[in-house]
């Protein structure tokens, strides 16, 4: 059992992580924002999968204007919803999935909302979400962490995994499904949802800016002296395949009344 007392330091299983977070937050500050309700965050995550942020946000806004209540979207025929999702990757698949996921939530819970998950453990809430159509581990983690539920759970996808592997925050050769747990086992015991979300944001930005697939820009990377891969010759040729349906596009946008994160 971890007993929190007044201590000057925050101890982590990986002592680099507080410094890693400090540097990432300095390089890419994550602005404070009003968080979306969990159902809105879930829908946005499903819309934005494999899709650039600007296109996903525009599609989400069109959808909310045309269907201001989630019950309106629940009953939409896929061929009609497809018109709102133009430009979105895998639009045909998503036009089928979005009404189905809303129908499943109402069938299982009786209401079109996910706020009830606030009273559940993180593990139970994640399991419940991943039984919904089209909801995988990335979508469930993002829904729990980025929404008003504010759970201390890490969203891990192909892009953040790329940086985490190079930083040796996970075991070599570990499967994608184990990465979020392995990183969380290394973070300080007093980290909350805010710190975990900032770590995700920083790793995502790091991959986009310096930790490129194939040839990372280690010399300019703000973590080069903390990264065991930076000084290795193989750092210039490492490639990590992107898992299908687990690709990430940058998105941390604001919509009226709430903010949706990706």
Short description:
With 262 residues, the chain is mainly α.
Report what the structure shows.
- The protein has two domains: 17-27 and 154-236, Helix-hairpin-Helix base-excision DNA repair enzymes (C-terminal) (Endonuclease Iii, domain 2, Orthogonal Bundle); 38-149, Endonuclease III, domain 1, CATH 1.10.340.30.
- Helix content is 46%, strand content 3%.
- It has helices at residues 17-27, 38-48, 53-66, 70-74, 78-84, 91-109, 122-129, 137-146, 158-166, 176-184, 193-209, and strands spanning 252-255, 258-261.
- It has a two-stranded antiparallel ribbon with strand order 1-2.
- The longest helix is centred in the middle third of the chain and has 19 residues, at 91-109.
- The protein is globular, with a radius of gyration of 19 Å.
- It starts with 16 loop residues before the first helix and ends with a strand.
Descriptive tags:
262 residues; mainly alpha; Endonuclease Iii, domain 2; Endonuclease III, domain 1; 2 domains; 11 helices; disordered N terminus
Show the helix and strand layout.
Elements: H1 17-27, H2 38-48, H3 53-66, H4 70-74, H5 78-84, H6 91-109, H7 122-129, H8 137-146, H9 158-166, H10 176-184, H11 193-209, E1 252-255, E2 258-261
Helix pairs in contact: 1-11, 2-3, 2-8, 5-6, 7-8, 9-11
């Amino acid at each position: 059992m971890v007993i929190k007392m007044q201590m000057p330091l925050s101890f982590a299983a990986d002592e680099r992580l507080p410094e890693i977070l400090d540097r990432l937050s300095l390089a890419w500050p994550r602005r404070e924002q009003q968080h979306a309700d969990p159902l809105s965050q879930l829908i946005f995550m499903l819309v934005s999968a494999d899709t650039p942020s600007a296109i996903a946000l525009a599609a989400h806004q069109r959808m909310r204007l045309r269907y201001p209540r989630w019950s309106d979207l629940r009953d939409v025929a896929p061929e009609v919803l497809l018109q709102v999702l133009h430009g979105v990757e895998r639009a045909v698949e998503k036009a089928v999935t979005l009404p189905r996921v809303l129908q499943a939530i109402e069938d299982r819970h009786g209401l079109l909302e996910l706020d009830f998950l606030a009273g559940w453990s993180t593990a139970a809430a994640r399991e419940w979400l991943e039984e919904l159509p089209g909801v995988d581990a990335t979508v469930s983690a993002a829904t729990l962490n980025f929404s008003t539920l504010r759970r201390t759970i890490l969203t891990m996808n192909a892009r953040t995994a790329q940086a985490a592997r190079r930083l040796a925050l996970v075991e070599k050769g570990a499967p994608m499904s184990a990465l979020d747990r392995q990183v969380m086992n290394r973070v300080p015991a007093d980290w909350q949802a805010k710190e975990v979300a900032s770590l995700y944001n920083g790793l995502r930005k790091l991959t986009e800016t310096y930790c490129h697939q194939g040839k990372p820009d280690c010399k300019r990377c703000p973590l080069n002296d903390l990264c065991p891969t930076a000084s290795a010759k193989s750092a210039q040729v490492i490639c990590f395949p992107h898992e299908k349906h687990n690709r990430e596009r940058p998105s941390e946008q604001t919509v009226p009344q709430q903010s949706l994160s990706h």
